[in-house]
Design a protein that fits this description.
Shape of chain A: globular
Number of helices of chain A: 0
Order of helices and strands of chain A: EEEEEEEEEEE
Radius of gyration of chain B: 13 Å
Oligomer: heterodimer
Structural class of chain A: mainly beta
Distance between the termini of chain B: 38 Å
Strand content of chain A: over 45%
Largest sheet of chain B: 6 strands, mixed
Order of helices and strands of chain B: EEEEEEEEEEE
Helix content of chain B: under 10%
Radius of gyration of chain A: 13 Å
Largest interface: A-B, 28 and 26 residues
Structural class of chain B: mainly beta
Number of strands of chain B: 11
Strand content of chain B: over 45%
Low-confidence stretches of chain A: none
Mean pLDDT of chain A: 92
Chain lengths: 114, 114
């Protein structure tokens, strides 16, 4: 059974640009969450999607957005990139929303903003 | 504010001995706690969890203890093996707000010395 797949694995952008990251959850998983990992802040929750609807949102500015498609694949977008957006962006999937938080993470997309 | 804290950034333990990783939390709404393990260049993987109605959960070499009155949990690894060398993240879930919205600590890097 394939795991959570994230693309691209690495990317470099400059300030002011925008970026789109993609996540394919484990087959059959309907909930997709996104987390940002930075050395100073650890892993921080960005948002969660279930059945193409955002169900939960963390404390990030509106420059961070996401969506989920009917096949449960998800994308997140960051507009007007800032240096502080440099981070590892992790996607996690789970079978349904009522589970106990045992998320399955992808390997992440490492974004560097210059 | 940091609702989940892992005060030890690193821990070094000899192979075969016990490893104890600690975690403190401040939000009394948290009712489910998890430990994740992360190797370099990989996403976090779920290790063990505990519900707030329990004070201990065991899975092979791994045991998690929860002290609700102290808002403290710990992960014990016995005996420690070289393959246990990784970064360990403590996470808490306010399940009423959605199990996917995990709040993570900043991680403890565990090194097992042969």
């Amino acid at each position: 059974k394939a795991g959570v797949t994230q693309t691209p694995r690495y990317l470099i952008k400059t300030r002011g640009q925008q970026v789109t990251l993609s996540c394919s959850p484990i087959s059959g998983h309907r909930s997709v969450s996104w987390y940002q990992q930075t050395p100073g802040q650890g892993l921080q929750f960005l948002f969660e999607y279930f059945s193409e609807t955002q169900r939960n949102k963390g404390n990030f500015p509106g420059r961070f957005s996401g969506r989920q498609f009917s096949n449960s694949r998800s994308e997140m977008n960051v507009s007007t990139l800032e240096l502080g957006d440099s981070a590892l962006y992790l996607c996690a999937s789970s079978l349904y929303r009522g589970n106990t938080g045992e998320l399955f993470f992808g390997e992440g997309s490492r974004l560097t903003v210059l | 504010d940091q609702q989940v804290k892992q005060n030890s950034p690193s821990l070094s333990v000899q192979e075969g001995r016990i490893s104890i990783l600690n975690c403190d939390y401040t939000n009394s709404m948290f009712d489910y706690f998890l430990w994740y393990k992360k190797y370099p260049a990989e996403g976090p993987t779920f290790l063990i969890s505990i519900s707030s109605i329990k004070d201990k959960n065991e899975d092979g070499r791994f045991t998690v203890f929860l002290n609700k009155s102290a808002k403290h949990l710990s992960l014990h690894i016995v005996p420690s093996q070289p393959g246990d060398s990784a970064v360990y993240f403590c996470a808490a879930s306010p399940r009423l707000q959605g199990a996917q919205k995990l709040v993570f600590g900043q991680g403890t890097r565990l090194t097992i010395n042969p």
